[in-house]
Design a protein that fits this description.
By secondary structure, the protein is an alpha/beta fold. Helices cover about 25% and strands about 15% of the residues. The chain contains 10 helices and 17 strands. The protein starts with about 25 loop residues before the first strand and ends in an 18-residue tail after the last helix.
């Protein structure tokens, strides 16, 4: 079981000095995706630093304005050719041409380019999580697998998506998965007690906090597996007429997302993985949100309409769902910012990108894409800024990806349709 950063031990191969007791933490990348775009009039930012103003969609990030990079005006030329969900999503992280007519072909996504090089240093090269099942159908001659996967290990292979929090947890912390395995913490507690005798008081407190957070996730995963089905598809029966298999997918979509967020943080905190992709829902999503009180239908949750149909309006409930997604990003940022890694926090050592494959669902508008980046990439990104490329040439989104790869010391000469990095980043 991996450990968090400790001042008492050397990590990542460096030797301590009097002024630098342990080496700097690595840069991490997390890509979050939510489908169907956002409220068209409330996705904006202006100003700098503490004076930055945010649109209502981004209100949950108010406390992180100084660490926020708001990027507007970037797009994928290849994604505009089909103008439907699948053709706009399958190449979101690659900018590659999308095949239709029954063929599956996109491009290797930039998170997986990093995983194939940078990710070799960790137990799990990349962790790809999701909160909604893949859709295997076809829509207007394009496979809906494109709408269900943003991470691609090769042009013809979407990276396997882990929906089950328990299995994602096992992948991070267990060498083998077997029914009846005891708690991860129980298996390593003797080693943990031995470690405590050789570390500073500050590190002892950090170790205790870390072990407590792992135990909390274990308990929540165990409880989640005892309840109902994943929200989204609505069965014809109100209750299952057979005993539910113990698959471990929470019934409540809010709890499902929050568990995945916690696993992302733990993966980074323990350096078990440095690259995580979290797909909160599909493009063309069928998720419903009974956990969110409806503004338009008082006394009810936002479960009267699936996410895709809800996106075809700018109503108050659509804004509320938008904010719910951004709250997941804010939750992750808050957890990361509370973890100290030497002179910086874990958020300062991370790039958290949130994106969607269109600006507004009602218009399938993707002539510019909604993109924000939180975190400092180990001091390599300055936050509190707005980068607007709308009326400028060379506004390929892949230029941003090249810049982000550069922060992790991976430097392809070209990527997708981009031939140079985005200098402003």
């Amino acid at each position: 079981m991996a450990l968090p950063w400790l001042e008492s031990h050397t990590v990542w191969g460096d030797e301590p000095t009097r002024d630098k007791p342990a080496s700097e933490a690595p840069v991490r990348l997390a890509v979050l995706f939510s489908g169907n775009g956002f409220h068209s009039r409330e996705w904006w930012a202006k100003g700098e630093g503490k004076a930055m103003e945010l649109g209502k969609v981004l209100a949950p990030l108010h406390g992180f304005r100084e660490k926020l990079l708001f990027v507007s005006g970037l797009y994928h030329e290849e994604a505009r050719k089909g103008n439907i969900h699948s053709s706009q999503t399958g190449n979101l992280l690659s900018g590659a041409p999308i095949a239709s007519g029954g063929e599956i072909r996109s491009g290797t996504s930039f998170d997986q380019v990093l995983a194939q090089t940078y990710g070799r240093s960790t137990k799990v090269p990349s962790l790809v999580l999701g909160c909604e099942r893949s859709n295997p159908s076809v829509h207007k001659n394009y496979s809906m697998l494109y709408s269900s996967h943003i991470s691609w290990s090769s042009p013809t292979t979407p990276t396997p998506l882990e929906l089950y929090p328990a299995l994602a947890f096992d992948r991070l912390f267990k060498d083998e998965v077997a029914p009846g395995d005891k708690s991860v913490l129980d298996a390593v507690m003797e080693d943990a007690q031995d470690l405590r005798r050789h570390i500073s008081g500050s590190d002892q407190r950090k170790l205790d906090e870390y072990l407590d957070s792992v135990r909390d996730v274990e308990k929540r995963i165990d409880n989640a597996g005892k309840r109902g089905e994943l929200q989204g598809w609505r069965p014809t029966l109100d209750k299952p007429n057979i005993k539910r298999p113990a698959d471990g997918i929470p019934q409540d979509i809010g709890e499902h997302m929050r568990l995945m967020c916690d696993l992302l943080v733990l993966g980074f905190q323990t350096d078990t993985t440095r690259i995580t992709t979290l797909k909160l829902n599909n493009d063309h999503s069928a998720l419903r949100f009974p956990n969110l009180p409806s503004v338009q239908q008082a006394g009810h949750g936002i479960d009267y309409m699936i996410h895709h149909l809800l996106s075809h309006s700018d109503a108050d409930d659509w804004l509320k769902v938008n904010q719910f997604f951004i709250e997941q990003l804010a939750y992750i940022a808050g957890k990361l910012d509370a973890i100290q890694e030497g002179p910086r926090t874990l958020l300062d050592n991370t790039m958290l990108m949130h994106c969607s494959s269109m600006m507004a669902g009602a218009k399938h508008d993707n002539d510019q894409l909604p993109v924000i980046v939180l975190g400092g990439a180990g001091g390599r990104i300055k936050g509190g800024r707005v980068i607007d490329k709308k009326d400028q040439p060379d506004r390929q989104l892949c230029r941003l990806f090249m810049s982000m790869m550069d922060k992790m010391d991976v430097r392809p000469k070209t990527f997708g349709d981009a031939k140079s990095m985005l200098e402003e980043v």
